[in-house]
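> example.struct
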């Protein structure tokens, strides 16, 4: 008696058994006639993997009861879910099929070492709880599996003795829990990323095709030569092998390239010219040196004549009133701070008007004459190179921005600096005196999350700003540069770290100097040697004519109150830009792709852009809330930057508590 069930349902068990027989022919004898045919998802994943990776039937998997798969070879479960799969040395032959083991979302350990598996490694991003991954001593090939970069709980990674090729991705340095990384005996090429994870205890990249200097990070410095051997192009102190003085890019003077050119031709002419031939190099240098020397002498003579005339005038007319303040140079320098280099004291003017006005003016003229046409190093900076050396430097174009063009310059002494040549037309509204004062103010700012401003130069409309070179590109490139249109955004913990770095830099600018950044965007956030986020170009936007700023890349970051108006940006404008930048981090979408949303709609949009990355939904929601608050239309409703930083620290503390409880 079948309790009135439809006749078609009576054959359902038989139908399902036949389906299983077709899908897994080697397992048909393992199912007793009366077994439960509704397999758990983890069992299906294991059997699917076996069907493609175990062509010689080495794994004797038999399902007699619903949870028998937890007793299979190499399988360990917790509460009915697979948490460990150790199949090393099983003689497996086949491929690692997609959508099989990657569905084991509670897996902590996966070991397939020392088998005969081949082909590319499938997408592993679904294994977000994975802590140990062993794929070594197989025949896997292709590029480094990009999905591994999303496994932020990973502590052990072994891809040794395979056939992987291409560069070792820089994103691997963001897996800050790694304590073991083995990539030896593959065909990886390119430069070695600056690994600096504090917990990294085992490291080996020997037997690859890596080139260039070994980054001098504290972590890599702990490892001996055995970790880097058999990479013919690697060099550095660890290997006791000197790196070549110049890269081949600069060796051939007869080849021209739009991104490899001498930095300047003269102090008064354009910055970029065609590379000179080796025969003319010495002659050109001599002409440049003579020209600069003559210019300095002429400027000095003019200043001495001006000083002499001023002294004679004051001695002939002792009763003449002091110089009127209307004779002072009127400039567009903003009224945020009054810097110590500006000598205007109203109290002293009342007591001794002639003394205060005449003497500082004379000193200022002499100081300006000494600085004009010379490379001026910021306060406390060692003078490691001269203007002539900078002029001889080879330059590589890095990018063009809203206020100027940026180059990577390699000097003769092998020092690398970043040189920004300001757009003369856009910065013409700023006088020489205002530019100098502003450079002295911004050049005095020092913080781990600011790119240090080392020196500056100005003469006859030419203005250069020299920064410390940052080797790892920009945040823009990290988010958008090498990622496909369908790639996932950065992991939310990486977003949190970068957001904290940027917030710390901005808060320092606002509080230590009362200046503002004025042009915060992902291309103005650079990645330092340890992949810390550092702000660059801070304060430069103030020097430019705001009406001439037609850069579409910056438009999406601008606060509403500064768009299509003459109103100057404020610290609250920086806060707005930070909110937009944070959304760009969380979604992987450039501001030009952000939809118009009311604050209540932002969390749902962020979740949709991150697809199934909701493992830490609470912290992700808090970060999204910070971005929404910063992006409020009214500047009065936005928090100060120090308050934003405090919010981010609270989110970080909640993550630490969760990790400890885990």
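> example.seq
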């Amino acid at each position: 008696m079948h309790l009135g069930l439809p006749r078609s349902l009576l054959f359902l068990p038989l139908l399902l058994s036949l389906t299983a027989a077709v899908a897994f022919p080697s397992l048909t004898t393992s199912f007793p006639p009366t077994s439960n045919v509704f397999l758990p998802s983890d069992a299906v994943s294991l059997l699917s993997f076996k069907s493609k990776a175990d062509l010689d039937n080495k794994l004797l998997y038999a399902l007699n009861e619903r949870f028998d798969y937890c007793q299979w070879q190499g399988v360990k479960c917790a509460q009915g879910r697979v948490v460990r799969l150790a199949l090393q040395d099983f003689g497996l032959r086949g491929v690692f099929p997609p959508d099989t083991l990657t569905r084991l979302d509670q897996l902590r350990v996966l070991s397939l070492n020392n088998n005969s598996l081949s082909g590319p490694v499938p997408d592993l991003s679904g294994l977000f709880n994975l802590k140990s991954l062993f794929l070594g001593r197989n025949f896997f090939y292709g590029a480094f599996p990009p999905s591994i970069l999303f496994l932020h709980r990973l502590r052990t990674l072994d891809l040794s003795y395979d056939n992987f090729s291409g560069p070792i991705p820089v994103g691997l340095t963001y897996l800050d829990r790694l304590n073991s990384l083995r990539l030896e005996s593959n065909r990886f090429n390119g430069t070695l990323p600056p690994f600096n994870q504090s917990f990294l205890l085992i490291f080996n990249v020997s037997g690859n095709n890596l080139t260039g200097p070994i980054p001098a990070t504290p972590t890599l410095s702990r490892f001996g030569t055995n970790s880097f051997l058999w990479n013919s192009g690697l060099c550095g102190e660890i290997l006791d092998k000197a790196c070549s003085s110049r890269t081949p890019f600069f060796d051939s003077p007869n080849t021209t390239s739009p991104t490899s050119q001498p930095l300047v031709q003269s102090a008064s002419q354009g910055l970029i010219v065609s590379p000179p031939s080796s025969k003319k190099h010495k002659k050109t240098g001599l002409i440049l040196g003579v020209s600069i020397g003559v210019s300095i002498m002429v400027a000095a003579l003019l200043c001495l004549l001006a000083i002499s005339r001023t002294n004679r005038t004051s001695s002939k007319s002792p009763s003449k009133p002091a110089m009127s303040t209307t004779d002072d140079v009127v400039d567009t320098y903003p009224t945020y701070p009054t810097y110590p280099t500006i000598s205007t004291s109203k109290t002293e003017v009342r007591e001794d008007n002639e003394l205060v006005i005449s003497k500082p003016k004379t000193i200022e003229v002499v100081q300006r004459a000494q600085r004009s046409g010379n490379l001026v190093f910021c306060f406390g900076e060692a003078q490691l190179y001269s203007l002539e050396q900078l002029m001889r430097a080879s330059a590589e174009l890095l990018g063009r921005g809203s206020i100027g063009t940026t180059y990577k310059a390699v000097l003769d002494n092998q020092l690398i600096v970043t040189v920004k040549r300001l757009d003369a037309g856009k910065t013409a509204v700023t006088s020489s005196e205002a530019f100098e004062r502003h450079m002295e103010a911004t050049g005095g700012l020092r913080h781990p999350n600011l790119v240090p401003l080392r020196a500056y130069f100005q003469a006859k409309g030419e203005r250069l700003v020299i920064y410390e070179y940052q080797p790892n590109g920009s945040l823009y490139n990290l988010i958008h540069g090498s990622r496909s249109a369908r790639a996932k955004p950065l992991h939310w913990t990486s977003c949190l770290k970068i957001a904290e770095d940027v917030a710390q830099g901005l808060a320092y600018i606002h509080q230590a100097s009362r200046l503002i950044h004025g042009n915060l965007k992902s291309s103005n956030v650079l990645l330092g040697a340890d992949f810390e986020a550092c702000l660059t170009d801070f304060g430069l936007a103030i020097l430019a004519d705001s009406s001439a700023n037609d850069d579409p890349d910056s438009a999406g970051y601008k606060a509403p109150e500064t768009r299509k108006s003459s109103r100057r940006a404020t610290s609250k404008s920086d806060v707005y830009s930070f909110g937009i930048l944070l959304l760009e981090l969380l979604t992987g979408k450039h501001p030009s792709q952000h939809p118009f949303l009311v604050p209540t709609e932002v969390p749902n949009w962020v979740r949709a852009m991150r697809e199934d990355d909701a493992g830490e939904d609470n912290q992700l929601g808090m970060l999204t809330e910070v971005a929404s608050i910063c992006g409020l239309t009214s500047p009065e409703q936005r928090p100060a930057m120090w308050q934003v930083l405090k919010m981010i620290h609270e989110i970080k503390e909640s993550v630490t508590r969760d990790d400890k409880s885990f």
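> remarks
The longest helix spans residues 278-316.
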